[in-house]
Specification:
about 160 residues, mainly alpha, 2 domains
């Protein structure tokens, strides 16, 4: 029995106890700090914030300024319609160009946002973080902000 309780065994047991109860929590805190630094530095950036704001503006324009576009062609003339109102070819082309610009920019911003959202979700899942992904809430707030801006503008223009 004397050989079982040697000084080295007691030191090893003490080292394991120190490692489990003191070092491991400190390492977890350091890991979480490093993860937080990475997320703030490389994921939740100004570029993401700009993309969220631009996408909200573009989605608002697409949803609220979109018109039913139609072209009728006959042998003698081509007629262009926007919401059943006859417009010139130039007006129609300008409207199409404007909508195409908004749709392309919205898609580009959406790709960046979804990539960052996926990256955050995977990081939080991998490191077993209980943190909620803030990007969907930011998108919702940005869209509500765009609606408020346009409601104010519509009130002032009337």
């Amino acid at each position: 029995m004397d050989e079982f309780l040697t000084v080295s065994f007691i030191l090893k047991a003490f080292a394991v106890w120190i490692g489990i109860y003191f070092l491991q929590p400190i390492l977890f805190v350091l890991r979480d700090k490093a993860l937080d630094w990475y997320v703030r530095r490389y994921v939740l950036t100004e570029a993401l914030d700009r993309a969220i704001m631009m996408r909200a503006a573009d989605v608002w324009v697409i949803n609220n300024r979109g018109k039913a576009a139609k072209i009728t062609a006959s042998s003698d003339a081509t007629t262009y319609y926007l919401d059943d109102v006859v417009v010139t070819e130039k007006q129609y082309a300008e409207y199409e160009r404007m909508m195409h610009t908004h749709i392309k920019r919205e898609a580009k911003c959406a790709r960046l946002i979804r990539n960052r959202q996926f990256q955050l979700t995977r990081l939080f899942h991998h490191y077993k973080q209980e943190t909620k992904n803030p990007i969907p809430d930011w998108e919702k707030e940005a869209y509500e902000h765009q609606e408020a801006i346009h409601k104010r503008q519509d009130r002032h223009s009337q």
